[in-house]
Request: fold
Amino acid sequence: MKYRMLENKKILLFCQYFFNYENKIKGKMEELGAKVSGSVSKKTDYLIAGEKAGSKLAKAQQCNVTILSEDDFVRMFV
Reply:
């Protein structure tokens, strides 16, 4: 049985590092049970935000979404 630490968590990737590896990172997150999203909503659990997250960061803050830096995400889940 796979360890699924992100089971049913909705995650939005918005950071420079992950753009270069988006398919690989998305696949790994899905293996851990995450649902990778393209937009922020009140149902989003995590926003992985880089330096230029812009309006998605503002929306995540309004929706009380947990915001992680790329480094935070890697330390917690990779």
